Amino acid sequence: MLLLEYVLVDDYVERRAPLRQEHLALAAAAVERGELVLGGALSEPADRALLVWDVPDRSVVEAFVQQDPYVSQGLVREWSIRPWTVVVGTALRG
Q: What is the pLDDT of residues 38-72, one digit of tens each?
């Protein structure tokens, strides 16, 4: 599994509305393909977002980032992709 972390701009909540539908459609397509497991923003404060991916390599996640309007329109200050070694949880059933 891979973890995509977005560090969000201070006014992310105020600026996301016009981009939200396109962002969520991109995420939904990744879910439909079986790539994206979970995703969402942290709150109080809304300063980061985390997306959990089940893909063979990081190029799939990098392609998502390149297409994400939150990134291209400056709502994401920085992002990183890290391997996540999951050892327990219902996502391991299969």
A: 999 999 999 999 999 999 999 999 999 999 999 99
> CA triplet 84, 21, 69: central angle to 5 degrees?
60
CB 76 within 8 A of CB 16: no
Helix (H) or strand (E) holding 22: helix 17-32
Please give the backbone phi and psi of residue 69, each rounded to the nearest 5 degrees, phi first. Answer: -65, -25
What element of type H or E holds 12? Answer: helix 12-15
Three-state SS for 25-84 is HHHHHHHHCCCEEEEEECCCCCCEEEEEECCCCCHHHHHHHHHCHHHHCCCEEEEEEEEC
pLDDT class of 2 with cuts at 50, 70, 90? very high
Matching residue, tokens 């997306």: 51
